[in-house]
Amino acid sequence: MKINQVLKNKGLKARGYRKKGKVTIIDTQDGKYIYKEGKLNPQILNYLKSRSFDYMPSFLNSNNETYQLTSYIENLDIPKEQKILDMIRLISLLHSKTTHYKEIDLDYYEKIYEDLNGNLNYLYIYYTDLITVIESKIFMSPSESLLATNITKIYDTISKNKERLDKWHTLIKEKRKERQVVLHNNLKLDHFLESDIPYLISWDKAKIGSPIFDLYKLYQSHALDFDFDSLLHEYEKTYPLLKEEKELLFVLISLPDIINFKNTEYINCQNISKMIDKIYKTEMLILPKESKN
Questions:
Q1: CA triplet 153, 241, 40: central angle to 5 degrees?
Q2: What does the alpha-carbon distance between residue 113 and residue 121 come to, in Å, rounded to a whole number?
Q3: Distance between CA 263 and CA 253 in Å, rounded?
Q4: Percentage of the chain lying above the pLDDT 90 cut
Q5: Superfamily the domain 2-72 falls into
Q6: Which of 75, 116, 203, 220 is at a distance of 20 to 30 A from 170, taking alpha carbons?
Q7: Interval 255-265: pLDDT, tens
Q8: What angle (nearest 5°) sits at the alpha carbon of residue 214, between those of residues 187 and 183?
Q9: How far apart are CA 42 and CA 33, in angstroms?
Q10: Where are the domains of the chain?
Q11: CATH, domain range 100-292
Q12: Residue 91 is inside which H or E element, if any?
């Protein structure tokens, strides 16, 4: 067994194993450890260490290994509202410590614009084709009726997003540099631990990029769970977003999800309700900031 060989190489002997999601919790004579498949990016880890970002587990494996072995971190039981606030503060610190500017070519922003514009066009065609089929039926299912009732809102969201995208495109036309940071790139509350110090775990997707992509990933995971207006405000206390960054973030978080009706009727209704709730909640987050601007 691979885990046993890894432990043997580290001079550890397992007393018991417990699977939790994608990780294995190992009880040894020297305490608990966490084992997870997946290679880390050594350049990013070394960069984080050079920037004195110490809020991640100590990895016992070498850089070229295809697994991760860390000491077990006891997670304090605190309210999730406090936990998400502590997490966003740590993300702002991560971005602040790793900020740098990268020279970009003329095609860099154009590709982002074309990809997002193509995505919005696809969403419009997708929902037009879908609603045409639904409205041709004599009897709609509850989920189909729910979508038909809200289709105007979906179209309105797509239209407003095209305006936001064009506004962002105007802002970045003359830009030749992009502000970049180390992205954790897999943000969700399960990947943040409160212990003697706060920890971010699951670094196997980490990369370099615009800071908004960490915020976008967190929003995708928890849009309906928390007040993101206060979270964004807390983040910007330490790391204010640039105007063009905020515009692109608003485009990304406003993209409607795709509903495919491949699940049970109950789950289809749930998915549509969540999408519509997210559209309204995102609108309430964005519109006051756009009006102020």
A1: 95
A2: 12
A3: 24
A4: 73
A5: Phosphorylase Kinase; domain 1 (3.30.200.20)
A6: 220
A7: 999 998 989 99
A8: 95
A9: 21
A10: 2-72, 100-292
A11: 3.90.1200.10
A12: helix 80-97
